[in-house]
Hints:
By secondary structure, this protein is mainly beta. It has helices at residues 11-18, 64-70, 83-90; strands spanning 23-24, 26-31, 35-40, 43-47, 52-55, 72-77, 102-104, 110-112, 117-129, 132-144, 152-154, 157-158. The protein is built from three helices and twelve strands.
Amino acid sequence: xxxxxRPAPTPERMRQVLGMxxxxxxxxxxxxxxxxxxxxxxxxxxxxEPPLVSFNPTRSSTTWPRIxxxxxxxxxVLAHDQHELSELFARxxxxxxxEVRWSRSPLGAPILAGVSAWVxxxxxxxxDGGDHTIVLGAVRYLDADAGRYPLLYFRSQYAPSEHWQAxxxx
Length: 170
């Protein structure tokens, strides 16, 4: 029997291969004693009945435990021209809300100005996901701006926004 010569699934190989899958970019936010938020790429719509979403913060996150304590959060779907916000909310130790415009969601979490969409949730469950946590959010409120295209991440870089010019807005 011939042995398979393909590379093993190392973290580097996983990043390389799965980087071929384009993802949206979100900022998960909450309002504790002060506004909290972090950038996340692993966001999905999970269920329509009941309405659930999921995202996966890294276990090393220092922001997620503080958002967990609040028990509710807003997922801000960043727009195509908001890559600076993605970088800001990914930077450890940054004063992320110092110069960011935002308003309160119905549940009180920050909705960042100019996002494509936002989803206001209550924490429904958490599960072990290896070096990440699998978070389920029960959707309570949501809205979108159909004229704002999402920020996409592909092959470790943001997709150029000029590609959206040919995409029809409905």
